[in-house]
Specification:
The protein is mostly helical. Helix content is 70%, strand content 3%.
């Protein structure tokens, strides 16, 4: 991994989360659970460096970290939309596609695990009904 790659991941994480914080749907979830944004950015930079470059810098469990959050399918959809827009803006095309692919895969896995119910409209949900 080059310093350019590290800089790109830093820029991606910082821009994405600045947008996510301002978002009407997912911003309140972040506001409720993130107390130290610098620390959160550091964790996510390590996570994405590990995901995209195999850096081995992330030691946590993202799935467990998200279990306590009041997430529904629309939160994942918005997160992905913002992530895809930001990755496309910040990263070179090949790396952007890799970041988007990883994010789509994770969002799918998290939804399957965290949202076991179906709403009447067919969307996944954390709660029955």
């Amino acid at each position: 991994m080059t310093s350019d790659s590290e800089d790109q991941i830093s820029q991606l994480v910082e821009l994405f989360y600045s947008r996510a914080q301002k978002d009407d749907l997912i911003g309140p979830v972040f506001d409720q659970f993130v107390r130290n944004w610098d620390h959160h950015h550091d964790i996510l930079k390590d996570f994405w460096r590990s995901q995209l470059f195999g850096a081995g810098t992330y030691q946590g469990n993202g799935y467990v970290a998200h279990q306590r959050l009041p997430l529904e399918e629309e939160h994942f959809d918005r997160w992905l939309t913002l992530w895809e827009q930001t990755a496309t803006e910040v990263l070179p095309p090949d790396l952007a596609q890799r970041a988007i692919g990883r994010a789509r895969h994770m969002a799918h896995q998290y939804k399957v695990g965290l949202l076991p119910y179906k709403r009447p409209d067919g969307r996944m949900s954390r709660t029955p009904g």
